[in-house]
Write a structure and sequence with these properties.
single chain; 199 residues; alpha+beta; Alpha-Beta Plaits; 2 domains; two-stranded antiparallel ribbon; 2 strands; elongated
């Protein structure tokens, strides 16, 4: 368990020193799990400070000796290490994942599923927006076509009315609604005078 006041770089440096001590004493590449910060069951005093939490690391390694003395000396004297526990076990048949690793793997899987669902929702929203935009454009086009059709339907009837009004002036037969103008008549007095002249 490392001190919680170490930065990430300092904790990584301390972990690298521990791994190098394992390699120097004939250990292979150690299996490691980083459990992160955990609250302690009781306060730990070290180097004049009281700690209420620690940065937990778990490792498994093989060694030629029971406990490499150089490794144990470093763990005991380092101010960065709050507590350590070295145990001997037989050769592992298979290393089962710890409950913390199972929990971390499950949390990572859930985050991936949530990210995939968020991407799918964003894609669906974009597709719906595109479809509604296309539908709005089609509706606008339909409305402008309908307005143009109505306007064209009104224009020919207005020109037909104009033609019907002009037809009597040209001498063509008058259509419905045309107003007939009275024909000019000769004055009545001139007609009898013209009838008297043949004598």
């Amino acid at each position: 368990m490392l001190s919680p006041i170490l930065s990430q770089e300092e904790a990584a440096g301390e972990w690298d020193r521990i791994k190098s001590l394992v390699h120097r004493n004939g250990g292979g590449d150690p299996y490691e799990e980083r459990w992160g910060m955990r609250r302690l069951a009781y306060p730990i005093k070290k180097a004049g400070q009281t700690f209420l939490e620690g940065n937990y690391l778990l490792t498994r390694f093989s060694s030629d000796t029971v406990v490499p003395p150089e490794l144990e000396g470093h763990l005991r004297l380092s101010e960065s290490v709050l507590r350590y526990l070295l145990t001997k076990s037989g050769p592992p048949e298979s290393t089962p994942p710890s409950p913390q690793m199972v929990q971390m793997a499950r949390a990572a899987e859930i985050r991936q599923q949530q990210a995939a669902a968020a991407q799918a929702a964003a894609a669906a929203t974009a597709q719906e927006a595109e479809q509604s935009s296309a539908a709005a454009t089609a509706q606008e086009a339909e409305q402008s076509f309908a307005a143009a059709t109505v306007q064209e339907a009104e224009q020919p009837s207005a020109s037909a009315d104009v033609l019907e009004e002009q037809a009597p002036a040209d001498g063509a037969p008058a259509g419905e609604g045309a107003v007939e103008e009275p024909a000019e008549e000769a004055p009545a007095e001139e007609a009898p005078a013209a009838a008297q002249e043949p004598e």
